[in-house]
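tool=predict chain=A
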Amino acid sequence: MTFVERKFRHGDVTMARKVVPEQQAKAQRRYASVRILADGRVRYSSEVGAVPSLQFCAIRYHEDLSGEWIYDSARYGLEAEQDGQPTLIMFVKQSRVYTACFSYDLDPATLKKAVATLRKHGQGVERWLAPALMRTQLSLTKLESNPAMLKAIPKLLESVRDLPVSGVWTRQIRADARWWKRWREQNPTAPATGHPLDPKRDSASPEIEVPGLRRRSLAAATRRGSTPAKPARPNRKRRP
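tool=predict ok
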């Protein structure tokens, strides 16, 4: 890989960035299969997975405001492509997947096929299907875009309710829920923000639900003590 390392200032910190030629930047790396570990780390493979028509594209380059193409191996996008069309987009930070969404321009049939295909692929990608559907639902609601796709998402969320959910995403959501709770306590008279984690949530905004929690809302799932604790083991006296 050919690149030129240049120094630049970001506040009081001097940082280095790798500038690559435009032709090299646009030649994205594609993989036949990926595996997402429990902590979000990504493992790439050239071996064809369970779905031969599925590919994964790592977009490690972005164009700067100055027109230069910057290489970043720690923060980039990872796209799943079905027959050459991008469907699922996973966002990587510090070399770990931390969130995901679906392309906003998909039609309901393509979205349904993408969910089924990625579910069949497995390898940890299935843990990000529910988070991706929820984020897409929130974004489309806010943007008031693609109503046909938005209408198809609730039924697809029901179909993936039996799948495990990424612990990385669950921890982030619970932390966000705690932040919103503290913010609402400090700003009790502030109007409803429309955010689904706002305790003063607008009824028109969609509610986030975590699949596998018996149809409980996220607010109920994140309340302290909502998850039943394991019964304590009885104290057994040692025999003399």
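The CA atoms of residues 87 and 110 lie 8 Å apart. Confidence is low (pLDDT under 50) at residues 7-15, 210-232.
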